[in-house]
UniProtKB/TrEMBL annotation:
Protein family (similarity comment): Belongs to the mTERF family.
Pfam families linked: mTERF (PF02536)
Protein name: Transcription termination factor MTERF6, chloroplastic/mitochondrial isoform X1
Keywords, alphabetical: Transcription, Transcription regulation, Transcription termination, Transit peptide
Lineage: Eukaryota, Viridiplantae, Streptophyta, Embryophyta, Tracheophyta
Length: 338
């Protein structure tokens, strides 16, 4: 690697001292042209600040710097410290800031005044409580890289078109699943909601309920995930109206693994418990409960004691309430789990 000037020589020695090999250094130089003029003193100061003050582990710093080498060129007092202090004011504990930087190192390269502050104001205008702002930004730090005008506003308009434009509903959705904002409205979210309406048969209220309670669902691919699950439920004998009710009541049913979740539970329900699928249609949360730890163990108890009860009565309560409801002792329960 040819060294052309004193600054380049200085920063190269810094990188080599930190354990970077020449190919990695070349890649960073191509990624960040400012490194050519970077001073090793500035780079060393920033490195030490991230390690000693922010609390990022030494072994993670090479990864962070390779992802965003610009970090080493920023003035500590003018850029890094103000950004870190602002992020720290949003955090519940200092480790969250270090974690956010590790997840998305470029967060430190963005302007506090031009990017982070307008972003916080944008979310507050949507009704996101100040106490929840940190949860959103630090959980998904990539948010700072999104354009408010060309991406986030489009997302908000789409959610409003679903009828979620009252009582801070949009803000609540975004707090629940900040990664929603990373998806394309036209390529992912609109096709998904169209599928829920046209194929699954959800009403406008049903779609609103799904987005409010489980926004992760509208982020999944229709062809690869949602439609195969929908088709499987139909193959099991569920009617269109029943599937719509189940999706409204328990949206994850459309993204659960068919092989590892849906099939074993339906097989156990029908072949072992001797129950019909109609009962699941009225209690879709059945698919939420652990098969072996909860469904099988409780079924053994009620069967051994000749107790007749619905799935909801058997499963929709804590272990203590279940024992109290049917009069089981701890000894009896332990015996049933064997």
């Amino acid at each position: 690697m040819e060294v052309t000037n004193t600054s380049s020589s200085s920063i190269m020695w810094f990188f080599r001292d930190k354990g970077f090999d020449d190919p990695s250094i070349d890649k960073m130089l191509r990624k960040c042209k400012q490194l050519d003029k970077a001073q090793s003193e500035v780079a060393s100061e920033n490195w030490d600040y991230l390690r000693n003050i922010v609390g990022i582990q030494e072994r993670k710093l090479p990864y962070i710097v390779s992802r965003c080498p610009k970090i080493l060129t920023l003035r500590l007092d003018e850029r890094l410290i103000p950004m870190v202090e602002c992020l720290s004011s949003l955090a519940r504990n200092p480790r969250e800031v270090a974690s956010a930087i590790t997840k998305f190192p470029p967060i430190l390269s963005h302007s506090l005044e031009e990017k982070l502050c307008p972003l916080l104001a944008f979310f507050q205008a949507l009704g996101v409580p100040e106490t929840q702002l940190g949860k959103m930004i630090l959980f998904n730090p990539r948010l700072i890289s999104y354009s408010i005008d060309t991406k986030l506003t489009v997302m908000v308009s789409f959610l409003a078109s679903l009828g979620l434009d009252q009582d801070g509903m949009i803000g609540k959705v975004l707090v629940k699943h900040p990664f929603l904002m990373g998806y394309s409205v036209d390529k992912r979210l609109r096709p998904t909601t169209d599928f829920l309406k046209s194929s699954v048969g959800l009403t406008e209220d049903g779609i609103q309920s799904v987005v409010m309670n489980f926004p992760q669902l509208v982020c999944r691919d229709v062809t690869k995930v949602l439609k195969p699950n929908y088709d499987y439920l139909r193959e099991c004998g569920f009617g269109d109206a029943q599937i719509a009710i189940m999706v409204s009541g328990y949206p994850p049913i459309l993204i659960k693994s068919i092989k590892n979740s849906l099939q074993p539970r339906i097989r156990f329900l029908v072949q072992v418990m001797g129950r019909g699928i109609d009962e699941v249609a009225s209690y879709p949360e059945f698919f939420h409960h652990g098969l072996k730890k909860k469904v099988e163990s409780r079924f053994k108890l009620v069967k051994r004691n000749n107790i007749v009860c619905s799935l909801r009565e058997m499963l929709d309560c804590s272990t203590k309430k279940f024992h109290d409801k049917f009069g089981f002792s701890e000894v009896t329960a332990s015996y049933a789990s064997l």
